[in-house]
Amino acid sequence: MRIARKRPGSARRGVATAALAISAVLGVATSPMPAIASADTFFFDDVGSTAVPRANCGPGSLPETGMQGDVPAEDRNNGRSTQGYRCNMSLVGGLQDRGGGLLSVTYDHCSYTSTFFPGNLLNPTTPGVQVLDVSNPAQPVLSTTLNEPAMLGGTWESLKVNKARKLLAATAVPIAAGTGYFSVYDISDCTHPRLLNRGAGTDVTMPLPFISHEGGFSPDGNTYWVSGPAPGFLTAIDIRNPAEPRIIWQGLHGLGGHGFGITPDGNRMYLSNLGGITVLDISAVQRGDPYPTVPQIATYLWTDGFFNQHSIPVTYGDKPYIFTVDETGGGGIKVFDVADPAHAEIVQKIKLEIQLPANTAANLRSSQGGSVFSYDPHYCVVDRPADPTALACSWESSGIRVFDIRDLSRISEIAYYNPPAQTGKNVQLTNSPHALSSLIGVSLFNFVPLARAVFEGKTDPRVAFGPRAGMVAFGDLSADWCFSPPEFHGNQIWTSCSDNGFMALQLDDTVYQPPANQASTYGQ
Q: Does the keyword Secreted apply (predicted)?
C-alpha cells in the first residue's frame, strides 16, 4: 500500500566546497562526496492521520486512561502517572541510580548506561558510563564504571555496541555536539570492559578531529561512523586496529545530521537529516579503499515529522525495506520500500493516537510541564533483520511500545510499558536529560505540528489550554522520557528511560514468542 506522494526536486549543491573548507579548519584530509549533482531530492507532502490498532490488554495490565500514548494532564496532576501504565508487559527489575542518560545499550548479560553532561559529574563515585551486570534481571547490579574522557564528557547518542567484534565505543558529546575524544573497549568479558585505545582519542593530548552528536558501528565492526548535528559533518573512523583509531574519510552532507542505519553488507547508509534521510553509497569505506569516496544516491524529505533519528534496514523475503524514526513533529515511524534506493517509496506509517493531526492540541495540553519533548518515537529495534516479527520502540513520554510487524500491511500494537513518573525528583536525577531539561516546561517541538493542524482546520487550538498551561518553566517529571533502543533478550526487553534508569521488562507469552534466530538490531 503506497500512502505518500513524492515529487523530485533539485539536488543539494555546494556540499563538496563546504566539506573542503571544514577539513582545512580541522587539519585533516577530506574526500568530499562526489556525484551529488545527479542524485535527486524527493519530497513527500502526505501527513499520516491514522493510528495503528491499540493493543488488547490482558490480565495484570494497568492500561492507559486516555487516548493511545497519552499521559493526560489530569493523571499528571493527581498522581495517577506515578503508577505508570502497562499492557501485556511488566517490570522484572531495574537500577535507577541517578537516571538513565540518553541511551543504554546491551551485550550478552550486560547493559551500559550513557552519561549526560554535566549532570553525570555530580555523582562523584560513579560519574562515567555505568556497566551493569544483568545476569539476574530481577536484580541488576553495578559492576564498574568507565571514566575515560569520552565517557565523562557525555556520550549523548554515541554509546554503541558491535556484537560481531565484541566492542563498545562512544565519543564525548558535552552539549548536543562534541569533538576530540573517542574510546573503544573490548567487552569479551562484558562486566569488565577493557580499554583498547590508550593513545589517540583517549589521551587528552591526542584528540581526533571530528564533530559528533551520534555514532555507531558498521555491521562488521571495522568502522565507527560519527555524525554531527550542525553542520551535517560525517566521519568514518577505521578501527580495524582498535588500539590505533584513524580517520579515513570525512564529508559534509548537508546543513544538519543525526543518526543512521547501515545495510548488513556495510555498503549503504541511510543517514538522518533535519527533515528526512539521505542515502549514501559507503562501499568504498567498507572495502577499505585507500582514497574512498562516498556518493550520494538520493535524498528524501517530508513535512510529516522532523529531526529524523535513525533507520533500520530489514528484509521481508528478499525485498529490502527500512523503518525510519522521526524524533519530533508527530511523524512517527515510516516504512520505506528501498528496492531501488534512488526511487524509494513510503509504504506504511506507524503512529499512536496522541500523534495524529486531529489530536495535536490535546498533545500539547497534556505535555505542558513535561519539557521540550512529548509523544514521539526515538529509537526502535527489530527482533531480527530478516523477516522481523516485532518492533520495539522508545516513545519518549509514551514509554516503551511494541508492535507486531510480521505483515507490513497489518501492523498493530501488542504491548506497552510506560514507567512510573518520578514526579518531583528533579534534583536527585542528575544523569537524567529530562530532569536537567525541565528548567523548560513547554513542549517546544509541539508548536510546528499544532500550527499546521490549526491552519488546515484539523484541530481546535483552545483544547491546548488545560490545567497545566501555565507551566512554562520548571517541569515536574510527571511522565518519563524514554530514548534508548529497547533490545530483545528472549521474551524480555532491556532498555532505560531517563528518569527510571535501566529496566528489564517481560513481554507476555500471549503476545510475543521470540523467533529461534532472534537478533536485535537498530541498524548500527
A: no
